[in-house]
Predict the 3D structure of the following.
Amino acid sequence: MAAPLTLLLIVAVTIRAVLFRSSLAELIPERVEVVSPLNAWKRVVEGLALLDLGVSPYAGDVFHETPLIIYFFHFVSDYAEIVFMVMTRLVGCVFLLQFRKQKYALEAERYPLDCLELIRTPKEMYYIPLKVAMFYLLNPFTILSCVAKSTCGLNNAVIALFILCTVKGSSLMSAIFLALATYQSIYPLTLFAPALLYLLQRLYIPVNWQRSSFWLFTTQYTFMYLGSLCVMVCLSFFLLSSWDFLSSVYGFILSVPDLTPNIGLFWYFFAEMFEHFRLFFICVFQINVFFYTIPLSIKLKEHPIFLIFMQIAIISIFKSYPTVGDIALYMAFLPAWNHLYRFLRNIFLVSVVLLACSTLFPVLWHLWIYAGSANSNFYYAITLLFNVAQILLVSDYFYAYLRREHHLTHGLYLKRKDGSEATLVLK
Amino acid sequence: MGDQFQEELVIRPLHSGDIYASFQFRTMWDTDFLRGSKVSHYRLFPKSLGQVISKFSVRELHISFTQGYWRTMQWGQPFLPSPPGAELWVWFQDTVTDVDGAWKELTNVLSGIFCASLNFIDSTNTVQPSASFKPLGLGNVTDQRFLRYAVLPREIVCTENLTPWKKLLPCGSKAGLAVLMKSEKLFHSSFHSQALHFRPVCQDWKCKSTVWELRQTLNVVFDLHTSGQGKREWSLFKMFSRTLTEACPLASSSKVYVDVTDNPQGELFELSPTTPLLSQAVVLGDRRTYSVYDLTNQATFGQTRSLNMLLRWRAAERDMLRPLLHGERYVAGYGLQTGEIHTLMYNNHPYRAFPVLLLDTVPWYLRLYIHTLTVTSKGRDNKPSYIHYQPSKDRLRPHLLEMLVQLPPNSVTEVTMQFERALLKWTEYTPDPNHGFYVGSSVISALVPSVVAMDTNSTRECPLFSSFFPCKEESSYFMRVYTEPLLVNLPTPDFSMPYNVICLTCTVVAVGYGSLYNLLTRTFQVEEPSPGLAKRLANIIRRLRGVPLL
């Protein structure tokens, strides 16, 4: 495992180093698909420059990072390229480590015999961590995000560390990293439920409303999480002696005042919104990210890792300022669900659409902004298509997962009452 | 002492063949409305303005409406500079508690008085400069909280603005120099600027009491080819289609000055009717000689009872002396995503360096990046000694950048800064969005070293045009230069699509919702093929009978 991993790391570092030194290093940080007003490197540098001038970075509307980022980059701004490469290395390794520990053993005994082919052999599972690391490190989206020095890489690293700590069972570290991820952008709050479910499962505490052990652990985890979050927020207050950052960071994420085009759904929607309905639709769109948590947690309470994947995917699609770095994070999980391939229905269509849209984004942007021969509708249409493809991808994997679970409990080759081969439908 | 009124007209031929006419009207208002006593008797000072000033506790008011851009390199320096469009800056008294509220009401009232759309001045284009617009009158209030500065580069000036402006004069447009101000000729010019300046000044050299001075100025440049029909011969009639018949009876002094510095022996042009009066004045760092026509003296009008000065050129002119300070500004870059603002400042003095204050007000939808600010002179970095930067807040206030830059002698200093163009909400665009958005002129304020000793005695009788900017020291004079306004295009959404966009985006969200809803609420079941129609009917009958189904 060490040798292929080292080779993989060397290749990934080489690619990034080559791109950093080429002329693309000036073009990529300007791309709106790769950076957003929340995580652009240019804005971090601007915030630091404002701090040097003696003006609060939050006095204007250019800087929307959290105060801890200011102080982190104040010290390492000269080594930014190295920092970002290290971050992606970190995420890769973290993914590697956590996927070793899969609950393979739990599955083996309960299932009907003909499902053996559904269960993964250790040999297959041996290569999954490497594949996950490869999927993340060599994904063009990740490479673009790293070369653009977008702080999305930092967010991804924190989420990956959170998942690692959760899988390893350390609830304190998991709460701290989750609080850090929530502090950076609000949406990882939805990962609280799957983390809780996983830790309960690991400690063999059943999810039963009557049992005191459940409530004890839940309150314990909640306090750890809220406590770390409070510590971070207060630390931010003391670093700059004002609460300005709350409206500049969280107010900005939630109220979407900046309509810079990106690959998400929000920008054009709110550019063309009637003023009267603006608040209503902001609330609808933001609630849309959060309200899948409880139904998904109920449905997937036995499978918290898949729940984490679903939550991260939903956040990446429906958040207010998505970038390709967010997409790369949930795409890295896909090799872990290799065994679902036989149940996927639209994978060809989805992958082709994603590929086509990724290629069309820069073309239509150029036509709108530089050539002037297209207008904003072209770019908007590709945005819509890209998001539909992502939604189909996620729901397809969900369908495949649920179907595999159904087969594991009812047998793989199902027959109808008259003995002929059955078809399964959702009713 | 009472109110006083003076009027003068300065005619200055320009090197490019054009002619520059500058009217100045000064009304001194002897009153103390500050003490709270309501002023009810107005003599020469216009009542509409007096009421506004006392109501809003204004200490200084400067407003200008300009059509056209002053070409410094061809025309030299103007007596009173002004940027294209409308510019308004006001110092309030320190007794005002709510300066923003007073500013808002004041702009609306002035908008009514001058028939201009000054009501477009709001917090998104108002700034409080910290160093560039110090008070021009008496007083030592320098707290910038009481200063407001706004510029509307898109404002157009026309007859409707000239008429109320003329009404503020004591004689109106009926007598004196104001009879020359006829709009059909005034607006048929390269440059037209009317301004109003109100400030407190000393009454006499002892400065025991203050009077309030109202200066109304009108600067106009007539083009050689459009107004002059290509022939280099100017007269009052050709410029204004009127001649002067009398001075304003309410004026204590009424004079016309013609700049004859380049024409000491009459070899360059011929001025008729001749006048024995000559006056010398140091203006803009240069000693100039003027022929003076005193309109209060009946003899000036001669036999015909009318004065029509005629300047006829004989010879071609030498090259013009380059103005010492000059500014230019332009937008670089391509596409609708980013751009760069370049401001060039020329210091044409052969051996003296001097500092200038650069003030930039940029609207919020051009997001400036201060870390990309570079100042270079002669190819080397020139770090400003003072930078005051206030970043913009979306839809609330614009960017404000003030810098003190030392300009080396005989050099060009370039200030560049990158910006990003924002996508606005569809209701925030003007009806013609592809015309672009205007960015107001930059203001370059400087104390320029003078080749001639300036006169610091401010109370001696001197012409109005040389005594506007207070002169504190002999070796330099104050100058303000305005750069060009910028026209910047922003990316636009499709304005015909709001309903379509809402439907399509909600459809995509609904696709997500629908797929996840299906997977969450339904379970897998083996599908039994549905029976044929006959069987189904039979089953219904069987159910009614209570018999087991087929």
Q: What stands out?
A: The longest helix of chain B spans residues 498-521.
